[in-house]
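Dear H.,

Thanks for agreeing to be a second pair of eyes. The structure we're designing against is below in C-alpha cell form, covering all 1294 positions.
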C-alpha cells in the first residue's frame, strides 16, 4: 500500500500492491496501479522542480528529475500490464523483484510528500488562534499547489534520496518492458485463458457415484422447483420466470448440489426441457444464448448475431416449461447484459425456472432485479458433522481398512473439525493423509494450515483465489488487511472502514465522503460473500476466507502470537502482535528497516515481572517512521508513549486498556498525541467499569487536541471529552459525542458553527446557552450532512419554561435530519419546527420532556419508523391533533412505539374509522397507570407489551388490506404478547376469541401480576398452535379450566408458572405431554410438596434448564435424576426444602460408610441460595459440576470442602454472592485443579488467602476486609506471592 493524502478534501493517491504466489516457489508478485504510482511520481517531480527553481539544488538532481518525467510512460506500461493480467500473468522472479524495488522507492517518495505537508500544517496550526481560524480551510488542497514549500534540511535530504531511488529503479526497467510485452501478446493471453476456462468448465454429471449429505438442501430446492408458480391457469403465451440462487464460498459444493438436483427424476419429469450452462467469468448474452441452443439441439448454432440467436431460442422455448441451470456465475454489475440474456427466456411456458450457483450474494440480487421476481436463495454452509466425517473418512481411508488404523481415526476427527464442513477441504486433506498412513505425518497435518493445501488448479486455495481475483483492486487491499486479525474475529464495521481510510485504501470519489465510500466497500465485500453480518455493524469472516486472506497477504501482513520477529521478510508492511514479552516488543525495532504501515499490538501483563511496557514501546516507536496505523490493546492501563509525536505520518491511533484502572486519568494521556497533525482517527476506549471509576475532578484541561485539524473521528472517554477546548477547529470531524456546553470561551455552542461535515451531534448542558442568539450561532439548520441530533438539558432545574422554549426554537436542524432525541427540555410546548414540513426525513424520535403538555403533530411524518416517549409526565390526552389528519390515518411507516412513565396519561383517541400505525410491529406501553383504553392495532404487530397500565381490555386488531404483512402467514418474526401488572384487567377472553388469526401465530405469551384476571377460555389452548414460550405468574384468581392433552401446544419450549389459582395444578399435571420443553420455572408454587416423579421427568427428554423459586412447601426433589438433559438447576427461597436439608447427614458421611453412589445428573451449573441444599439427594452426589453459584447467607461460615473436592475434576467457576460470614478460604483450594474463576462478594471477614491452584485465571473479591486488601498489595503484601501469577485479580473494599 502506498498513499499520499493531499489534504482531507482531496483524493488520496494510492499505490496498490497485490500479493500473489508462484505455483512452485510461493514467492509474491507485487504490482502497482499505474495512475496512482504516476500521481505520486509526478507530485515528487513537481516539488523537486519547484525547489530547483528557487534554491541551489544538489548536484545531478535536475537531471534525475528530467529522466523520471521521461520514464513515466514506460512505468505506466509495466504497471498496467501486470495489473490487468492477475490470473494469467507469467510468474517471473525478475519482474517481481523489480516491482518490490519500485514499491519501496514510491513509498519513500510518498513519505517525503507527506512530511512536507505535515510541517506546513504544523506552521499554520502554531499560528495565533485568530489566524488559525481563517487558514484551516486553506490546508485542504493538493500538495502539487505548493509553489515554494519551505524545506527543513533533513526533509530536503530525503527529497533528494527519494528522487535518486526512483531514478535508479526506473533505470532498471528495460528487461521488465520486454517481459510485459510478451505477457500482453494475443497468443499468450488466448492460450492462458483457454487453460483457465477449461479447468473451470462444469457439466450436469456428478463426478462421484454417491453424494454424502445435502439431503435437506436438495429436498428444499426440488420442492421449490416443482411447485406451481401460482394457482392461476397456466398460459402458453406468457411466462413468469422464477430464480433460485445457491450462494456459498468456494469449495462448499454448490455445483455438486446443483448436479444432484438437476439429475433428480422428479425434476426431469416435471420440466419439458432442462439445460445446463457453465457461465464462469465471461458473461456475454450472445455466447450464453449460443450455449443454451447447443444444449437443446446438441449442435452449435450457425449464427453469431445476438438477434438471430435469440429468435432461434424463442422458437425452441415458446411452448416448453424449462429448467435452466446457470453454474458458477460471477457477473453482478452489468445489468444491461443480464437483461439482453434474459429477454428470450421470458417466452417460455409459465412455471419455467432458473437455478443459479454463485459465490456472491450480489449476483442473486442482480438476477432477481432483472427477472423481476422475489429473491429466493440458499446460503450454503458446511456439511453436518456426521456427513462431513463420512466424506472425510471416505478419502482419508480410501483403499484401506479403517479398523487397521484406529490410532489415526481420533486424530483424523480433530483434523476434520478444523475445516467447518467444507467438502473440498475434506477431499483435498483426505487425499493428502491417504498418501501417508503414518501417525506422525497425520499429527503434523493437524498443526498445519489450510493455506498449504494447494493441489494445482483444483486445490483449496486456488479455488478460493478465484473469488479474490474477481474483486476490484481497492477491495483486494481491504480484504488482505483483514488477515491481521484472528479467526472468528468480530469486525466492527465502522472501525474497519476507518482503518482502511487511515491506510489509504479508500479512494476519494467526487463529493462523496470517504466514510460513505468505505461503507460501500464493506457492503460490496459482504454482497460478494467475503463477510457475513453477525448483527448490526458487526461482521465475521468464514475460516476458509480468513485462510485465503493469509495466503494472498503473506508477503505484506504478519500476525504473531508470542513468536520472535527476527528473520521476517523485508516486504512486510502490516504487523499484528500479541505478547506478554518485553523482549518481543523490543524486537519490533527490527522492523525499522521495513516500511511498516500498520502495528496492532496486544500487550498482556506479565505479573511475574514489573515491566514498563510504555517506556519500551516508546523506544520502539521512534524507529517506525512510516507508521500509518497504530492500535494498542493492553489488559492493564499503561501510559501512552511520549514518542508518539515522532510518528508524523500516523492517521489512525487506537488505545484500549482492559483492566487495572488507575483513577487519575491524565497519567496515561500523552500530550505528544496533540502533535499528530495527520491523524484522522483517535479512538480511546475504556471498559464501562473503568469509565465509572474515573475521578472527574482529577482531569485537567487537555490543550492541543483541537490542533488535530485532519481528525475525522474523536472517540475518547466522557471525562476527557469535556476538557477539550476549541473543538470547533476540528472542521473535518464527522461525529461529535458528549459535547457539554459551558459558559467559558472554547466550550460554547458556537463551537459547532464551522463543523459542517458532522453527521452526528450529541450536545449536553444546553442550559448554559445564555441567549437565543447564541443558539443560532450553532448553524444546525445549515448542516446538510447531519443525520442524528441529540439535544440534552441537565435535570433538577427550576428555570422558566419560556427560556427552554425560545432556545429550542432557535436550534432548528437541517431538513435532512433522520434521528432526533430531546431530553431534559422543560418547555410546555413543542418547538415550531417539529412538523412534517420541517423534518420530512425523520425516521426516529425520542422525547423525554417532563413538562410538555401536548404532543407535536408527528402522525404525517412520511418516513418515521421509531417513536419513543419517556417520562412525559404532563401529557393527559393523545388525540387526532397528533395524527395530523382528521380521519385518523397516521404514522404510515411507524414500526416501533415505546411509551414509558406517563402517569397522567388518561385518553388515547383515534377517529372511529381511523387506521393509525398500519405497519406497527412493536408496541411497548409501561408505567401508564391511568390509561384506560388503547386504539385498535394492526395485525402487523409482532410484539405487544403492556406493563402497569390501567386498561380494562386488551385492544382489538384491524386488518389493513393494503398491507401484505397483515396475515398470519406473513408472521416472519415471533409474535409476542406480554401483559404485566395490569390490576384492572378482568379477562382476555374477547381478545383471544376475536383475534384468532393473530393467536395462531403467537410464539410468546406472558401474563404476570394481573390480580383481577379470573378466566382463560378453553378455546385458548386449541388456538396456540405455534406457542413456544408460556408464562403465567401471580394471577391468583384464575379459576380451573379443563386442559385436554391434545389441546396443549406441543411446540412449547419454555414454561413458567406459579401462584395462578386453579390453573396451577392443571398445568403441572400436563407436563408429561410437553416433549419439546427445554426450560421450566416453578414460581411461588405454595401447594407443591414434591417435584414430579421420575416417570414424568423421564418424558421431558429435552429439558435442560430448571428453576424452582419461592416454593415454600417443597420438601423433595422427586424424580429429578430422570432429567437426562438437565444442565442448569436453580433453587431459591424454598424454606421447607432447607429445613429438610438440615436434617441430612453431613457430606462425606455416606462415603465413610461405603454407601455413596454417583448421581446420574450431569449438571453444568448449580445455582442455590443455601449451602445446606448440597446435603440433599441427588445434589450431594454430584461429581461433574462446572459452575457453582452460592447466594450465601449468615449461615455460610465455611465452604463445602467435601462437595468441592468431589467435583474438582470439572469445577471451573465458583461464585459466592454473599460471603459476609465466611471466615476464611480452606487450604484445600489448591486441590481444585480445574478451577479457573473464583468470585466472592461482601467478603468482609476474610483476612488472608490460601494457596490457589495453578489453573486459576481470575480472582475477584469485593467488599473485602482492609487487612486483606493490604496483604494483597503488589510486591509488598504478605499474600501477594499467592496471587502474583493469576492473570486477572481484583481485590477491593468497595
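And this is the sequence the design step returned. I haven't edited it by hand at all.
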Amino acid at each position: 500500500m502506498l498513499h499520499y493524502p493531499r489534504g482531507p478534501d482531496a483524493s488520496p493517491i494510492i499505490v496498490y500492491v497485490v500479493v500473489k504466489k508462484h505455483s512452485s516457489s510461493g514467492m509474491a508478485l507485487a504490482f502497482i496501479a499505474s495512475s496512482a504510482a504516476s500521481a505520486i511520481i509526478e507530485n515528487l517531480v513537481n516539488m523537486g522542480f519547484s525547489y530547483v527553481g528557487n534554491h541551489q539544488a544538489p548536484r545531478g538532481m535536475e537531471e534525475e528529475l528530467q529522466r523520471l518525467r521521461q520514464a513515466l510512460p514506460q512505468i505506466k506500461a509495466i504497471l498496467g500490464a501486470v495489473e490487468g493480467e492477475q490470473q494469467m500473468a507469467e510468474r517471473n522472479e525478475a519482474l517481481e523483484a523489480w516491482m518490490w524495488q519500485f514499491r519501496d522507492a514510491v513509498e519513500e517518495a510518498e513519505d517525503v510528500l507527506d512530511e512536507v505537508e505535515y510541517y506546513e500544517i504544523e506552521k499554520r496550526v502554531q499560528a495565533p488562534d485568530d489566524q488559525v481560524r481563517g487558514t484551516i480551510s486553506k490546508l485542504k488542497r493538493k500538495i502539487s499547489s505548493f509553489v515554494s514549500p519551505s524545506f527543513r534540511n533533513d526533509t530536503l535530504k530525503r527529497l533528494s534520496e527519494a528522487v535518486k531511488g526512483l531514478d535508479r529503479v526506473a533505470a532498471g526497467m528495460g528487461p521488465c518492458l520486454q517481459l510485459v510485452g510478451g505477457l500482453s501478446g494475443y497468443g499468450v493471453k488466448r492460450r492462458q485463458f483457454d487453460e483457465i476456462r477449461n479447468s473451470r468448465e462444469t457439466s450436469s454429471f456428478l463426478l462421484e457415484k454417491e453424494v454424502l449429505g445435502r439431503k435437506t438442501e436438495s429436498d428444499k430446492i426440488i420442492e421449490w422447483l416443482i411447485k406451481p408458480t401460482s394457482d392461476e391457469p397456466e398460459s402458453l403465451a406468457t411466462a413468469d420466470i422464477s430464480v433460485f440462487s445457491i450462494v456459498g464460498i468456494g469449495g462448499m459444493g454448490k455445483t455438486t448440489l446443483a448436479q444432484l438436483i438437476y439429475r433428480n427424476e422428479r425434476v426431469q419429469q416435471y420440466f419439458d426441457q432442462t439445460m445446463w450452462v457453465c457461465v464462469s467469468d465471461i458473461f456475454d448474452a450472445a455466447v450464453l444464448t449460443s450455449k443454451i441452443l447447443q444444449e437443446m439441439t446438441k449442435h452449435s448454432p450457425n449464427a453469431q448475431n445476438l438477434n438471430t440467436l435469440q429468435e432461434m431460442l424463442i422458437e425452441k422455448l415458446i411452448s416448453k416449461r424449462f429448467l435452466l441451470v446457470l453454474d458458477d456465475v460471477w457477473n453482478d454489475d452489468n445489468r444491461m447484459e443480464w437483461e439482453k440474456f434474459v429477454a428470450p427466456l421470458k417466452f417460455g411456458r409459465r412455471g419455467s425456472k432458473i437455478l443459479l450457483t454463485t459465490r456472491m450474494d450480489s449476483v442473486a440480487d442482480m438476477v432477481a432485479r432483472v427477472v423481476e421476481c422475489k429473491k429466493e436463495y440458499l446460503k450454503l454452509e458446511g456439511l453436518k458433522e456426521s456427513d462431513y466425517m463420512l466424506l472425510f473418512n471416505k478419502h482419508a481411508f480410501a483403499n484401506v481398512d479403517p479398523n487397521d488404523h484406529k490410532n489415526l481415526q481420533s486424530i483424523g476427527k480433530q483434523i476434520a473439525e478444523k475445516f467447518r464442513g467444507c467438502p473440498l477441504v475434506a477431499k483435498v486433506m483426505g487425499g493428502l493423509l491417504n498418501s501417508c498412513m503414518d501417525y506422525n505425518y497425520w499429527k503434523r497435518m493437524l498443526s498445519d494450515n489450510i493455506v498449504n493445501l494447494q493441489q494445482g488448479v483444483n486445490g483449496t486455495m486456488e479455488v478460493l483465489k478465484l473469488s479474490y481475483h474477481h474483486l476490484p483492486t481497492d477491495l483486494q487491499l481491504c480484504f488482505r488487511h483483514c488477515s491481521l486479525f484472528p479467526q472468528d474475529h468480530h469486525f466492527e464495521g465502522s472501525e474497519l472502514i476507518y482503518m482502511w481510510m487511515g491506510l489509504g485504501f479508500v479512494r476519494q470519489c467526487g463529493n462523496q465522503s470517504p466514510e460513505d465510500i468505505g461503507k460501500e466497500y464493506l457492503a460490496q465485500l459482504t454482497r460478494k460473500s467475503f463477510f457475513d453480518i453477525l448483527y448490526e455493524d458487526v461482521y465475521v469472516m468464514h475460516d476458509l476466507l480468513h485462510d485465503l486472506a493469509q495466503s494472498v497477504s503473506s508477503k505484506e501482513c504478519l500476525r504473531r502470537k508470542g513468536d520472535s520477529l527476527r528473520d521476517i521478510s523485508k516486504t512486510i508492511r502490516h504487523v499484528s502482535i500479541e505478547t506478554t514479552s518485553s523482549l518481543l516488543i523490543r524486537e519490533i525495532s527490527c522492523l525499522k528497516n521495513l516500511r511498516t504501515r500498520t502495528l496492532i499490538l496486544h500487550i498482556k501483563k506479565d505479573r511475574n515481572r514489573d515491566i514498563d511496557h510504555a517506556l519500551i514501546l516508546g523506544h520502539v516507536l521512534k524507529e517506525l517512521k512510516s507508521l500509518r496505523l497504530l492500535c494498542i490493546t493492553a489488559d492493564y492501563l499503561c501510559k501512552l508513549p511520549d514518542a508518539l509525536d515522532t510518528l508524523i505520518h500516523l492517521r489512525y491511533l487506537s488505545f484500549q486498556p482492559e483492566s487495572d484502572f488507575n483513577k487519575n486519568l491524565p497519567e496515561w494521556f500523552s500530550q505528544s498525541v496533540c502533535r499528530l497533525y495527520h491523524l484522522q482517527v483517535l479512538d480511546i476506549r475504556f471498559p464501562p467499569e473503568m469509565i465509572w471509576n474515573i475521578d472527574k475532578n482529577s482531569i485537567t484541561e487537555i490543550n492541543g487536541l483541537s490542533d488535530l485539524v485532519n481528525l475525522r473521528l474523536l472517540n475518547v472517554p466522557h471525562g476527557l471529552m469535556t476538557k477539550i477546548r476549541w473543538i470547533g477547529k476540528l472542521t473535518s470531524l464527522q461525529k461529535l459525542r458528549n459535547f457539554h456546553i459551558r459558559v467559558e470561551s472554547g466550550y460554547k455552542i458556537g463551537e459547532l458553527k464551522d463543523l459542517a461535515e458532522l453527521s452526528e451531534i450529541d450536545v449536553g448542558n444546553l442550559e448554559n446557552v445564555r441567549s437565543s442568539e447564541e443558539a443560532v450561532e450553532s448553524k444546525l439548520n445549515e448542516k446538510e450532512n447531519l443525520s442524528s441530533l441529540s439535544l440534552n438539558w441537565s435535570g433538577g432545574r427550576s428555570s422558566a419554561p419560556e427560556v427552554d422554549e425560545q432556545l429550542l426554537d432557535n436550534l432548528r436542524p437541517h431538513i435532512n435530519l433522520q434521528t432526533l432525541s430531546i431530553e431534559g427540555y422543560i418547555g410546555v410546548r413543542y418547538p415550531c419546527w417539529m412538523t412534517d414540513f420541517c423534518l420530512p426525513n425523520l425516521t426516529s424520535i425520542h422525547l423525554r420532556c417532563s413538562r410538555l403538555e401536548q404532543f407535536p403533530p408527528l402522525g404525517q411524518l412520511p418516513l418515521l419508523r421509531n417513536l419513543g416517549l419517556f417520562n412525559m409526565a404532563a401529557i393527559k390526552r393523545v388525540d387526532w391533533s397528533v395524527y395530523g389528519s382528521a380521519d385518523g390515518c397516521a404514522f404510515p411507516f411507524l414500526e416501533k412505539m415505546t411509551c414509558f412513565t406517563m402517569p397522567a396519561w388518561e385518553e388515547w383517541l383515534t377517529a372511529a374509522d381511523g387506521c393509525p400505525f398500519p405497519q406497527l410491529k412493536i408496541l411497548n406501553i409501561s408505567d401508564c397507570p391511568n390509561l384506560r383504553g388503547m386504539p385498535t392495532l394492526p395485525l402487523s404487530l409482532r410484539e405487544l407489551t403492556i406493563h402497569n397500565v390501567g386498561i380494562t381490555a386488551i385492544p382489538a386488531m384491524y386488518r389493513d388490506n393494503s398491507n401484505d404483512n397483515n396475515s398470519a402467514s406473513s408472521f416472519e418474526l415471533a409474535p409476542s404478547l406480554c401483559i404485566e401488572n395490569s390490576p384492572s384487567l378482568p379477562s382476555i377472553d374477547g381478545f383471544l376469541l376475536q383475534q384468532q388469526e393473530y393467536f395462531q401465530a403467537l410464539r410468546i405469551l406472558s401474563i404476570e401480576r394481573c390480580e383481577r384476571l379470573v378466566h382463560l377460555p378453553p378455546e385458548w389452548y386449541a388456538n396456540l398452535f405455534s406457542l413456544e414460550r408460556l408464562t403465567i405468574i401471580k394471577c391468583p384468581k384464575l379459576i380451573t379450566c379443563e386442559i385436554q392433552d391434545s389441546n396443549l401446544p406441543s411446540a412449547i419450549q419454555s414454561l413458567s408458572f406459579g401462584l395462578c389459582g386453579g390453573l396451577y395444578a392443571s398445568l403441572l399435571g400436563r407436563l408429561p405431554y410437553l416433549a419439546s420443553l427445554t426450560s421450566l420455572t416453578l414460581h411461588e408454587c405454595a401447594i407443591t410438596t414434591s417435584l414430579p416423579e421420575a416417570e414424568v421427568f423421564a418424558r421431558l427428554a429435552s429439558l435442560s434448564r430448571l428453576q424452582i423459586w419461592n416454593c415454600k412447601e417443597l420438601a423433595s426433589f422427586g424424580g429429578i435424576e430422570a432429567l437426562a438433559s438437565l444442565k442448569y438447576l436453580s433453587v431459591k427461597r424454598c424454606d421447607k426444602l432447607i429445613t429438610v436439608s438440615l436434617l441430612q447427614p453431613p457430606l462425606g458421611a455416606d462415603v465413610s460408610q461405603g454407601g455413596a453412589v454417583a448421581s446420574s445428573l450431569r449438571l453444568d451449573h448449580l445455582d442455590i441460595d443455601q449451602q445446606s441444599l448440597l446435603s440433599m439427594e441427588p445434589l450431594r452426589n454430584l461429581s461433574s459440576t462446572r459452575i457453582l453459584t452460592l447466594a450465601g447467607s449468615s449461615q455460610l461460615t465455611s465452604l463445602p470442602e467435601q462437595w468441592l473436592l468431589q467435583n474438582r475434576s470439572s469445577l471451573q467457576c465458583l461464585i459466592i454472592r454473599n460471603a459476609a460470614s465466611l471466615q476464611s478460604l480452606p487450604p484445600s483450594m489448591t486441590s481444585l485443579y480445574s478451577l479457573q474463576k473464583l468470585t466472592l462478594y461482601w467478603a468482609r471477614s476474610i483476612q488472608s488467602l490460601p494457596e490457589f491452584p495453578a489453573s486459576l485465571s481470575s480472582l475477584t473479591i469485593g467488599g473485602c476486609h482492609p487487612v486483606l486488601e493490604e496483604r494483597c498489595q503488589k510486591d509488598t503484601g504478605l499474600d501477594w506471592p499467592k496471587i502474583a501469577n493469576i492473570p486477572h485479580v481484583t481485590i477491593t473494599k468497595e
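Two observations from my side: Residues 119 and 150 are 9 Å apart (CA to CA). The mean pLDDT is 82.

Warmly,
E.
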